[in-house]
Amino acid sequence: MSRRNLLGGLAVLATAPAVALAAPTPDAELIRICEAHPAVMDAVSDLGSGRDDCPYWKAYERSRDAIFDAKPVTMAGMLAKARAAKAEARTPSGVEDPDNSPAELWAWDLVNDLLRLEGMA
């Protein structure tokens, strides 16, 4: 390896975000799914057919169900789930209304997740 390549590689590492160098968290997959969930929601809203066999609807169901099934074990995982719940609660007009949406149930899940995290559930 040349000195130039070594120094260039070290420069990249020095400027890389610390997150990229950190070990994955136990909730890494949940966080990834939750962060992608709003885009999945937008795709089903913008491109979905409204039919059960629609690939956008199926992607939404997979995402939604994975979040439902998740039991976060870190505060980062819980925050990601909370952000996904807020996205679910947002109406097309931009108002938040969790009634009759996954957000309503995820909010209660988060209460139980908090208690479980503290060893109380």
What does this entry look like structurally?
This protein is an all-alpha fold. It has one domain (about 25-115). It is about 70% helix and about 0% strand. The chain has six helices and no strands. The protein has helices at about 5-15, 20, 30-45, 55-70, 75-90, 100-115. It is globular and about 45 Å long. It starts with a helix and ends with a helix. About 20% of the residues are buried. Mean pLDDT is about 85; it is low at about 1-20.
What gyration radius follows from the Cα positions, in whole Å?
A: 19 Å
Major pleated sheet:
none
Round the mean pLDDT to the nearest integer and report it: 85
- Taking pLDDT < 50 over at least 5 consecutive residues as the criterion, the unreliable ranges are 1-19
Class of secondary structure makeup:
mainly alpha
CA(first)-CA(last) distance: 55 Å
Percentage of β-strand residues: under 5%
User: How many strand elements?
Assistant: 0
Shape: globular
Task: Give the topology string: H per helix, E per strand.
Answer: HHHHHH
Our count of domains comes out at 1
Provide the helix percentage: 55-70%
How many helices? The count is: 6
